[in-house]
Amino acid sequence: MDTIWIISLGVGLVGVIAGYFTRRYIAEFKVAAAEERARQVMEKAVKEAEAAKREALLEAKEETLRLKNEAERDNRERRQELQRTEKRISQKAEAIDAKLEAIQKREDGLSCKEAEINNIKVELEKVHAARLVELERVSGLTPEEARELLLAEVEKDIQQDAAKIIRDIEAKAKEEGERRAKDIVALGIQRCAVDQVSETTVSVIPLPNDEMKGRIIGREGRNIRAFENLTGVDLIIDDTPEAVILSSFDPVRREVARLSLERLVLDGRIHPARIEEMVEKAQKDVDRQIWEAGEQAAFEAGVPGLHEELIKLLGRLKYRTSYGQNVLRHSMEVMYMAGIMASELGASAVLAKRAGLLHDIGKAVDREMEGPHVAIGLDLARKYGEDAEVLHAIAAHHGDEEPTTVEAVLVQAADAISAARPGARRETLEAYIKRLTKLEEIANSFQGVEKAYAVQAGREIRVMVKPERVDDLSIVRLARDVAKKIEGEMEYPGQVKVIIIRETRAVEYAK
Length: 511
Fold this sequence. Notes:
- Helices cover about 70% and strands about 5% of the residues.
- The chain is mainly alpha-helical.
- The radius of gyration is 45 Å and the shape is elongated.
- The protein starts with a helix and ends in a 9-residue tail after the last strand.
């Protein structure tokens, strides 16, 4: 019994000791496993922190590089713009120096000629005085007595015959001239069928979807800024579905922007570098189109020997409008009508066509140079070797000079017909009627005016006066006063011709 109890006690002690060591071993094993997991978590956290740090550094470097590139591009564009501005200023300074030198030479030449004329005048006065003395001695009459006697005899002999001949000739010439002029103008208009093109200052670009607008704007607007800086055109993106608007007063720049944007939308890759590439290609294409348009115009006109720069300027007129009328189309129409009328009159059709084609050449660059388009065109034509007759027609087509050749008169008439006929220029009916009504109101506001009519699309005002209240001398002053009042109170294209008509009638009945 005691042995069994002792054995049981020994077995219990062994079990207790074994359990203790077993629990201790398990506890130490769990602690070691927990420490291992903690170490792994720490290593993973360190690695993730290092990766995040490297990613943040890379993003910061990319942003710094982008800002640096944008700053360099802006500086480069500013330098290019400054260089272009300096070049234009240098060219203008050279032109001014050349003009001043020419003026100085002309003044020197005029001074020499004036001295020669004064010397000749003195000699002529001496000769004239000597002849008068000799005539007085021979005739026994003073110069005044001899002049009065001679004039009286001549006037008595030829006054009636001369008056009758002059009256008959004037009547026949006026009748024939009016009939012939009407026939020639009507023939020129009938044979000239040139389309008129009405253009605006905006172009609408269709888009495949509205998502494309966001791509055009770009991140933080960088694409749209790059596009506007490269083209000089305002890109308007509004609520219009699947469309954007290009706005610019310069049709050439607007055409370059239109071609560029259409190609960018078609390509789908829109970023500053791609925009710059497309704008350069579009600029080359537009330059080629300008050259082809100028060549085509010169070919259709049959005008040989035009300078290359004049051909380019003619092509630029394709993208220039005046009161909604395409200037190249207008020049072609003037060329056709002037040539037709010159052929009918027996004048030089070649000269009339050449002058008609080039009469508005100054409008190709009048937005880039100071001065009216007539003076600019005259300088350009003279610079590129045009004849004196062509220069005179260009200078006289708006009345800045009095036309002295048939061809100059025909170009002036053809220009007025092309610009004034209905449909040629875009103008609202309401504004048109208001302008004509205002012209007639101004004329009727003067005393002695009986009626006033605005004709020739507002280019001419005919005023009938009461003959008993306005005499022949007063109508000159009245015409000047009406013209001054029109200039001060109205705005109008071109010029307004004021004609005062005074008519006296005597009526009697034979019974």
